[in-house]
Fold this protein.
Amino acid sequence: KLTVTGGDSYSSPRFADIVMLEDGTFRLYYSAHALDFVEGIHYAQSLDGYAFEYKGSIFVPPGYEAKNSTTFKIGDTWHMYAVSEEGSQALWHLTSTDGVTFSVYAKTSFPMDGESVIPSNGLMIGDKFYLFVSTSTGEIKSWSTKNGYDWYPDDGVRLAPANGHALVKDATIVELEDGSQLMIYVTDIIDD
């Protein structure tokens, strides 16, 4: 179980979004309620990936909310997408040069098959970054970009439910040392 020390009311993380920095430090972006009950994005750091120390608030929009972020770096720019109070129809798109001080670039959405979807995680392959999304049909699909600003829906399904499962969602993908990719995802539990 990961823990966050410090930060008082911000130490109960929801919607963990972890990136590994170039020096091997783990940075955890997460959602938490502030004292005024506004949900925002905060961050903590760790050397072991389990025990995190609270570092500060990233984005707590006054009178609004931001939660369930996904954060990645393309070139010299960090991009964060977070769900707003309007849900998946209006995601905050934040940008940063240091991964700590973010500015609002826009509100945007990822419409796919007649619905707006929430991105979960992504991976750079070659010169494209692939952002994985969960659909209401229980599949995992993707969008891709070369710059973090201009996104295009990819053809096909990355992963579909199988063997009687109803859904797969919330994919996290990591590249292994041999260059292959490992996808970790959520699925339903089937009672036998």
